[in-house]
From TrEMBL:
Pfam families: Ribosomal_L4. SUPFAM superfamilies: Ribosomal protein L4 (SSF52166). This is Large ribosomal subunit protein uL4. Residues 44-94 are annotated as: Disordered. Belongs to the universal ribosomal protein uL4 family. Gene3D superfamilies: 3.40.1370.10.
Length: 207
């Protein structure tokens, strides 16, 4: 698949041949749903448990006579009715992490990239700007027609100046190629890839 390459300022900069094995896969809703669900569940933190009767550091020794005190019978300071005792019917620990086959994860990312290749993919030479300031970057995005939510993916690392300026723009996110994921790709209107990022993504599957 051949697509046009442009500079960050919108000027034409030739063509690039995209690998059909990465950018030409027919998307399937069920695969994408499984991968997105897996990602979002793994982002959730563990539900913290309360300490129950067996978890508190109190003595289990019987501390009073069985009869004759006029009070109730007790044999454990860790009982929920005492200060410092365990919680009765407390929250239990819950982990939300799911497992997913690596082949399905890779296939999901290919399908997400392929869906953007059909509509919403822009390839640029690099992210280098003479004036990497928020105002200048906003003007550049507007000139290129990149509106709504924009995801920019660079090679191994992202230029700090560009990243800071982009961080001030609403709906704009910047990621390195190795941080590309299905949820973020599908959750943005426009996907901007540098030529370096294209090479890294294709090598990620070929390697």
């Amino acid at each position: 698949m051949k697509v046009k390459v442009q500079k960050i300022d919108g000027k034409a900069s030739g063509d690039i041949e995209l690998n059909d094995a990465v950018f030409g896969v027919e998307p399937r809703a069920d695969i994408l749903h499984r991968v997105v669900t897996w990602q979002l569940e793994n982002r959730r933190g563990t539900a913290r448990p309360t300490r129950e009767r067996s978890d508190v550091a109190r003595t289990g020794k019987k501390f009073g006579a069985q009869k004759g005190s006029g009070g109730a019978r007790h044999g454990d300071r860790g009982a929920p009715i005492f200060i410092g005792g365990g919680k009765a019917h407390g929250a239990r620990k819950r982990d939300f992490e799911q497992s997913l086959n690596k082949k399905i994860r890779a296939l999901g990312l290919k399908m997400a990239l392929s869906s953007k290749a059909k509509d919403g993919l822009v390839v640029v030479d690099s992210l280098e700007l003479k004036d990497a300031k928020t105002k200048a970057l906003a003007a550049t995005f507007g000139k290129n027609g990149w509106s709504g939510k924009v995801l920019v993916i660079d090679g191994e690392s992202v230029n700090d100046g560009f990243k800071k300026a982009a961080g001030n723009l609403k709906g704009v996110n910047v990621l390195p190629a190795m941080g590309a994921n299905v949820y973020d790709i599908l959750n943005h209107d426009t996907l901007v890839l540098t030529k370096d990022a294209v090479e890294k993504l294709e090598a990620r599957f070929n390697g």
